[in-house]
Amino acid sequence: MAKKTFKEALNSGKFVVTTEIGPTKGTNIEEMLHHIDILKDKVDAINVTDNQSSVMRICSLAVCKLIKEKGGEPILQMTCRDRNRMALESDLLGANILGINNVLCLTGDYISVGDHIDAKPVFDIESVQLVQTVRLMEQGKDLGGNALNGPLKFCCGAIVTPEADPIEPQLMKFEKKIKAGAEFIQTQAIYDIDNFKKFMQYARKFPDVKIMAGIVLLTGAGMAKYMNANVPGIFVPQSLIDELAAAPKGGGLKAGIAIAGRMVKQLKDEKICDGVHIMAIGREGVVPDILAAAGL
Amino acid sequence: MIVAEKKPFAQIKQMVQDRKKIMIMGCGTCVAVCMAGGEKEVELLASQMRLSNKLAGKNVEIIEATVTRQCDREYMESVLDKARECDAVISMACGVGIQLLSDLIEEIPVYPGVNTRFIGTNESEGVWLERCMMCGDCILGETGGICPIAICAKGLVNGPCGGTNKGKCEVSSEKDCAWTLIYRRLEKQGKLDNIRAIFPPKKHGLHVNPIRQTNEAYLHAEMEEAHHG
Fold first, then answer.
1. ∠ CA(A275), CA(A232), CA(A166), 5° rounding?
2. Of A18, A153, B19, B21, which alpha carbon lies 20 to 30 A from A241's?
3. For testing the chain A interface, which of B143, B192, B195, B198 should be mutated: the one with the most A CBs within 10 Å?
C-alpha cells in the first residue's frame, strides 16, 4: 500500500508523528541517508530544517527531494531569513514540481546566533506572510500580483512557542498564522504537560488546525539546564532535570529517550493534542527508540 | 538625530599618513550631540594627530574647523577656501556631510573621521538607541508609537518570533523585544485591535536608493528648468 500523504494522515484522525532531519554541513551524506532510511517508514512525515540555528548546511529542498525518492514524506521547512519574497516563491514552485507538498513556514533565527554572522539578514517577509503567500499562490497568483501558469498546492503549517514569555503577543501571532491559512502547527519543545494542557485548552478554540507538540530529546541534566538558561521559550521542569541527573553515568541519553517516550505516550493516550513532532537534534538515530518507548 | 562613532585613531592616521597639511572639519549638529564629531572631538583628534606626528618626527600642519551643519551648502561656504589650501580633509560629519564636503572641494580628498551608524534617540547620558529605519511607509500609528522595523532585530510586523525572552530579544538580552513593548503599550491605550489584523509585506519598492525628494512647491520650478535648461 502506498504511504499516506502527510495531509491524509493529518485528516485521518490518527495521532500524527513527525520528526526532523538536520541536513549535513557538507557533502558527506551517508549518515543522513541512513537516518532517512531508518525513519521514513516509522513516521508520518519528516521535516527538513532550513539552515537551522542560522548555521549554513545543505538546502532543505534538496534533502526533501532525497526523502521523496526514498519513498518518504518530506515537510519542507522554509525560513524568511535567507531569501526575499521572490526566492521564497520560486522555491515553493520548485518544491511543488518535485512532488514536495508539505511546507512549514518559519521566520527563522536571527543571523547572529549562527555561523555566518556577517551575512545580510533578509526577513523581507515573515512567517505569517509566508503562510499567506502559499495560500495566495494556491489561488494562482504571486506577491507581485501576477498570474501563475499553474497554481501550487501545499499542506501548509507554522509553529508556536507555548512557553513564550510573555505569552499574549505570541498567541496573537498564532491566531494570525491560523487566519493566514496554517493547517497544522508544530510547537517549540514542551516539557511541562500541565502547562501544555492549558495552551491546548486555548488552541482548541481553533478546531480546524492540528496541533503537534514539539518533543526535543534531552540527553542529560546539563543539556536541560543549558536550555532553561539559554533557549527562550523552553522550560524543563526541575523534576525532569532530577530524573536525568539520577541516571547512572553515561545513562543520560537513555533517560532522555524514556522521558520523551513517556511524554509522547501521555499526549497520545490522553488525547491532549493531535500529534507530536520529535526533534532529536543530532541524534536522529534514536528516534525509533523514542517511538518504541512510547509504544508506537 | 544621526548617530555616529569615532573611527579608531590608527585608522584615521593611516588614511592621511603622507599628507602635509590636513584640515579636520567637525559638524555642530547631530554628531556634536552624540559626541563623535563636534568641535570638541575635532580639537581632540587634532591634538592626537599633532602629538603623534611630533613623536614620529613629522612636520604636518593641522587646521581645525567646525561648521553648524556639514550637510547644508549654506554653512559650508565660509570654510571651503581654507579647505582647498590643504592636501586632505578629515570630515567628522556623518556620511552625508562627508559627501557634500567632497562634492564642494572635488580636487581635495576627504576622509571619514567617523562611522555613521543610525538615526535614533538619546536614551540617557551617553546612550543612543536606533529608532527609525526610514522605510518610507510609517506604521507607528498602529504600533503604539514603537517601530517594529527598527526595534525588532528581524523587523517583524506581525508579532514576536519564538525568540522573545521575558521582554528581551533572542539576539541579545540587552535588546528589548519590540513586540512585548508594542503589546504592552497598546494594552494601556486599549488599542490592541490595531495589531490583530495581518500587516502586508513591506513595500520595499518605495525605497530605491538614492531617493530624491522635491518639495511640492518646487516641483513646478524644477520641471520648468528641465524644460528650458
1. 90
2. A18
3. B198
